[in-house]
Amino acid sequence: MAKYFGTDGFRGEANKTLTADHAYKVGRFLGWYYSQGTNEKCKIVIGKDTRRSSYMLEYALAAGITASGADAYLLHVTTTPSVAYVTKTDDFNCGIMISASHNPYYDNGIKVINSNGEKLEDETIEKIEAYIDGNPDSIPLATGKDIGRTVDYSAGRNRYIGFLISLATRSFKNMKVGIDCSNGSASSIAKSVFDALGAQTFVINNTPDGTNINDGCGSTHPEAIQKLVVDNKLDIGFAYDGDADRCFAVAGNGRIITGDLILYVCGTYLKEKGQLDKNTVVTTIMSNIGLYKAFDAKGVSYEKTTVGDKYVYENMSANGYKLGGEESGHIIFSKYASTGDGILTSLMVMEAVLEKKTTLEKLAEPVTIYPQLLRNVRVTDKKTVMEDKDVCAAVDVAAMALGSNGRILVRGSGTEPLVRVMVEAENDDICEKYVNSVIRVIENKGYAV
Q1: Residue among 53, 82, 99, 101 flagged as catalytic
Q2: What's the pTM value of the predicted model, to 2 decimals?
């Protein structure tokens, strides 16, 4: 496992686990690394969300990049998917997004995107980490005319807005649409897109102050957009996370439309149009059993990956699938993007609603989401717990009892000394019973801390 970079970049509390010095070193390495073997000036594009610390990290990255002789192009406040789009379409050597996504404001992160607009390959991440922990003088400083420069590149963000607008197949005229920008990156983009397409747009949480990102709002707190939609009798609503690569929706009747429900609405719509390549949607192991039962009823196939939109995209790319995502709202339409894109997802949902001439609640109605209970157990050693024969036996007993009307998933956390025990079943009592049955064995064996 990488020391600094997880599945979604280098993330931690700003100036504690993620410092300006870290950012400078990442910039130094990338500026040097992508300059090797070419006579052309290396170009790296940087975007950021609205956190107070994003400015600090932006300038530290730019300093490192230019000190290594590369040029840093600044998109300023923008979304993660816009950085991926601009990196690929404008032939940048790589892109960097400064964001901790749905985390609180005091956290931040550095996401690196390769020239194809995809998350950086593990081999390069290992080299970055080796440099962070190694000798800073191992990479030469540029001098004289070889020192890099910074370039204002807000025009790149505007072109991304134009790209989103171009994807809509219908006018949104007469549609009352609510948007929750989570006081994050979507604040600079989302309203412009919906206004341009003719919607009557109602916007909340679009006044970022550096400390209010994700604070009781956005896709992690969908009750805010739910209230806006219901109170104002809107047709539909969308909520994004801090860097707008996730999306939850709300139907006109107030039903929260999670990532699983979005996958159903868009997957079945694309199947009807003959545009669901290989008749398959890619999900993660955390998707609800209710989604799979609804897909089975519609004859839609599916695959399951480990948790993380990175793994969803890898599966899609390897197999030629066009739709995939996570329950958390990372939805990938690979025809248009190489990463989850909350605003793009909104447009695809709007297309299904408008073409079918119905409501979002009707499109999502066939999916019955099963109750789910997830509990985390702090343990002495995850691997030992997961391999213990008595724990495995308890899991097998629960799985057999649940049968086709439920499921149990036990997995170790990727970042903490936790074992996660999750059960889905027809009611809450059954969930409670089988989660507790496994946790009891973990505790009785002395593994729990």
Answers
A1: 101
A2: 0.91
